[in-house]
């Protein structure tokens, strides 16, 4: 027979059961309900539920079938109108038959309806037989139990190869609880790194960002609080916690089990549940709801229940252990993440067992996708998923209230956090003071150096100005003396230099020369032997056409009579030109037939 997918809802007067039976023969189906029992059959589907409240057959019941969706919708009247049925989302618990609730731990109930009479007749013998545990898990005097409710032992003897990848405890079957705790504390103390903690303490930008993240339970808790404030009534979490289709299928796959736990075992189970939820809340926050390859490692590493098979005796011990492990192992080691995981766990417990079950189903899925961690599902998580569905809401509320009253501060974790922080702050203040003093001294040094350099520059400037003025005077006097000497030498050369014409013939006549240099006209007329007629003709030719030609200063050469013709003659012969540097230019005769170039000294007057 196939167990169909189903969903239960309620209103004040009716309980509604929606059953999905695709490909079933709708014309042939049977429905039976009375008191807390409900049965449905439509070949090949069979569904039997044990309801949390009583229903009655009084003529108001209704049933309908949707052929497109293949679903039956059945409305069943409540025996007590207005009664609230608790735990309608706990599908595994609803599937369990009523008489199985008194069975012994880890008993798998299969085909219980066929053996009901036999169980009733031989109840004591049946219970005695169920107390026996399979051979591979039978505890010996040298073995110590662990797992959910400390109901398992001998498991790791068969899984030595995978042991190191799952838990930190070596040889758990031979290690008592006190020795486990001692080894765990020693490992945490050796793993704690003050530098890592202080780095996260001072450079907390990422931590602040993670603290702002809001997981799904924050919004659900806000809605629940607002609704409770309006109606002043308590509401169960299914109104605010919704299971996905995959989560419903996951619950259907769990085997029906019942657990007989003594008071000590129940206490260990509740405290272990808090420890696992704390680790899960940290994982969800630091990864902002996303799953990655480190998710399985984070959860099992931060939970001493999973990693060291720890059995706690108080809620405060749970919080201290979680706080220590957060500050020793994961990437982000900040105490604010510990307190935020604490408040998140309180919210989940306040939402009720539906929220707790949703978290456990997510953990179960994470471990199932991690190769070595599936062992923890067999030891803890699967049993927690089944057990939490049968826990009374009042018990969970009392656990939440006790958790809220418990406080955790930095001094409780025993890692000297406050001393480390105080020392780090003191060192930081000293570094700031030294840095400030160094800055001030550096500024003073720079100021003194600048003042010294300014005084040196001013003195050097004044001395350079004095030296410059002296050198200028010496240069001007030297240049003037040089000009005089050069002119005198030129006159001597001009007086002795022969006059050569363009044909290379020497002439014995002296020469005229006109020189314009440095804005000053220096004209020297040397007496010549030719008659006055020749002088007049030369003056006329000079006035008719002459132009300037650059020559080196102080040049005194013989005149050359040449015959040159240029393509662009200067139209204005009387115009003088000077270059940008203000150097002197010589006068040249315009290129005409038989031009004459006269060079003369400036020391003689014109005849």
Automatic annotation (TrEMBL):
<dbReference type="GO" id="GO:0005654">
    <property type="term" value="C:nucleoplasm"/>
</dbReference>
<feature type="compositionally biased region" description="Acidic residues">
    <location>
        <begin position="467"/>
        <end position="483"/>
    </location>
</feature>
<keyword id="KW-0539">Nucleus</keyword>
<dbReference type="GO" id="GO:0005829">
    <property type="term" value="C:cytosol"/>
</dbReference>
<dbReference type="GO" id="GO:0000493">
    <property type="term" value="P:box H/ACA snoRNP assembly"/>
</dbReference>
<dbReference type="Pfam" id="PF04925">
    <property type="entry name" value="SHQ1"/>
</dbReference>
<keyword id="KW-0963">Cytoplasm</keyword>
<dbReference type="InterPro" id="IPR008978">
    <property type="entry name" value="HSP20-like_chaperone"/>
</dbReference>
<dbReference type="InterPro" id="IPR039742">
    <property type="entry name" value="Shq1"/>
</dbReference>
<dbReference type="InterPro" id="IPR007009">
    <property type="entry name" value="Shq1_C"/>
</dbReference>
<dbReference type="GO" id="GO:1904263">
    <property type="term" value="P:positive regulation of TORC1 signaling"/>
</dbReference>
<dbReference type="GO" id="GO:0051082">
    <property type="term" value="F:unfolded protein binding"/>
</dbReference>
<protein>
    <recommendedName>
        <fullName>Protein SHQ1 homolog</fullName>
    </recommendedName>
</protein>
<comment type="similarity">
    <text>Belongs to the SHQ1 family.</text>
</comment>
<feature type="compositionally biased region" description="Basic and acidic residues">
    <location>
        <begin position="572"/>
        <end position="581"/>
    </location>
</feature>
<feature type="domain" description="CS">
    <location>
        <begin position="1"/>
        <end position="89"/>
    </location>
</feature>
<dbReference type="InterPro" id="IPR007052">
    <property type="entry name" value="CS_dom"/>
</dbReference>
<feature type="region of interest" description="Disordered">
    <location>
        <begin position="445"/>
        <end position="504"/>
    </location>
</feature>
<dbReference type="InterPro" id="IPR048696">
    <property type="entry name" value="SHQ1-like_CS"/>
</dbReference>
<dbReference type="GO" id="GO:0060765">
    <property type="term" value="P:regulation of androgen receptor signaling pathway"/>
</dbReference>
<dbReference type="Pfam" id="PF21413">
    <property type="entry name" value="SHQ1-like_CS"/>
</dbReference>
<feature type="region of interest" description="Disordered">
    <location>
        <begin position="549"/>
        <end position="607"/>
    </location>
</feature>
């Amino acid at each position: 027979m196939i167990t169909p997918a189903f969903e239960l809802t309620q209103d004040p007067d009716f309980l509604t059961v929606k059953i999905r039976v695709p490909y079933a023969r709708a014309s042939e189906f049977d429905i039976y309900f009375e008191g807390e029992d409900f049965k449905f059959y439509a070949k090949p589907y069979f569904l039997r539920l044990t309801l949390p409240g009583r229903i009655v057959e009084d003529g108001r019941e209704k049933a309908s079938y949707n052929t497109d969706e293949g679903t039956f919708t059945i409305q069943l009247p409540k025996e007590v109108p207005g009664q609230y049925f608790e735990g309608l989302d706990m599908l595994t618990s609803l599937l369990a038959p009523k008489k199985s609730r008194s069975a012994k731990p880890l008993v798998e109930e299969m085909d219980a309806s066929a053996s009901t009479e036999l169980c009733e007749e031989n109840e004591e013998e049946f219970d005695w037989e169920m107390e026996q545990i399979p051979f591979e898990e039978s505890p010996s005097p040298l073995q110590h139990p662990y797992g959910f409710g400390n109901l398992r032992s001998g498991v790791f003897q068969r899984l030595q190869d995978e042991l190191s990848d799952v838990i930190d405890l070596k040889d758990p079957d031979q290690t008592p609880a006190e020795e486990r705790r001692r080894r765990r504390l020693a490992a945490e103390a050796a793993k704690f790194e003050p530098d890592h903690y202080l780095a996260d303490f001072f450079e907390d930008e990422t931590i602040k960002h993670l603290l702002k993240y809001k997981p799904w339970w924050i919004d659900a808790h806000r809605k629940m609080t607002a609704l409770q404030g309006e109606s002043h009534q308590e509401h169960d979490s299914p109104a605010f916690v919704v299971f996905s289709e995959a989560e419903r299928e996951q619950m259907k796959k769990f085997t029906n089990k019942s657990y007989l736990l003594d008071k000590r075992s129940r206490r260990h189970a509740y405290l272990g549940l808090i420890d696992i939820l704390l680790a899960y809340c940290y994982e969800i926050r630091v990864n902002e709801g996303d799953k990655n390859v480190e998710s399985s490692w984070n959860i099992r590493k931060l939970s001493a229940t999973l990693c060291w098979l720890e059995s706690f005796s108080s809620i405060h011990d749970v919080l201290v252990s979680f706080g220590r492990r957060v500050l020793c192992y994961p990437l982000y080691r900040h105490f604010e993440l510990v307190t935020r995981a604490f408040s998140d766990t309180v919210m989940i417990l306040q939402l009720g067992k539906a929220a707790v079950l949703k978290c456990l189903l997510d953990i179960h899925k994470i471990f199932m996708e991690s190769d070595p961690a599936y062992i923890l599902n067999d030891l803890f998580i699967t049993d927690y998923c089944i057990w939490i569905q049968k826990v009374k809401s009042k018990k969970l509320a009392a656990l939440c209230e006790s958790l809220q009253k418990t406080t955790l501060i930095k001094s409780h974790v025993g890692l000297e956090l406050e001393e480390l922080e105080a020392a780090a702050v003191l060192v930081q203040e000293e570094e700031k003071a030294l840095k400030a003093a160094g800055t001030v001294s550096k500024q003073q040094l720079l100021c003194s150096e600048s003042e010294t350099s300014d005084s040196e520059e001013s003195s050097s400037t004044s001395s350079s100005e004095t030296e410059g003025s002296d050198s200028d005077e010496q240069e001007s006097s030297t240049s003037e003396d040089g000009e005089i000497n050069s002119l005198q030498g030129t006159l001597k050369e001009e007086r002795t230099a022969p006059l050569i014409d363009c044909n290379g013939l020497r002439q014995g006549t002296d020469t005229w020369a006109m020189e314009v240099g440095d804005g000053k006209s220096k004209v020297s007329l040397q007496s010549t032997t030719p008659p006055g007629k020749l002088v007049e003709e030369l003056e006329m030719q000079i006035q008719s056409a002459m132009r300037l030609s650059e020559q080196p200063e102080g040049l005194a050469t013989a005149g050359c009579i040449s015959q040159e013709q240029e393509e662009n003659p200067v139209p204005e012969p009387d115009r003088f030109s000077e270059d940008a540097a203000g150097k002197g230019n010589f006068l040249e005769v315009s290129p005409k037939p038989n031009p004459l170039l006269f060079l003369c000294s400036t020391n003689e007057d014109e005849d």
